[in-house]
Design goal:
137 residues
Length: 137
Amino acid sequence: MSVYREPHAPCGIFCPQCPGVKIFNCKGCREQKGQIKDFPVCKTYECVTSRGFTFCYECEDFPCEKLQPIVNFEIFLPHNSKIYNLLMIKKLGISKWNEVCEEKSDLYYKGRKIHYGGDPLTLEEKDPNMYKKKNNK
């Protein structure tokens, strides 16, 4: 089990996608016991480990405010995917999620961005007439 969970922080972040790995030479939350460089120990890490869980989704309070996106870290894309990753780990199991998480993470971070109000290509494919009327006003 530990080999499979190592690249995943208790909060659901897929560590290889986290800038802390490159910027601070972080080895991951689990190996560093929730502390990166000189930063305080992560409150989410402390919460999960103090309750004896491996991941946040195991807690009866999931999802809680500790998983809320943090304004200071909005540039760190992995923070945007925590809940999704945790739900997929819960749904698929950690072994199966490990088989697809890198591909899913690449798609999320490097794929085509969806615009507010929907992706125009998707909307056009669903209802070309509605899309043309909306954009030709």
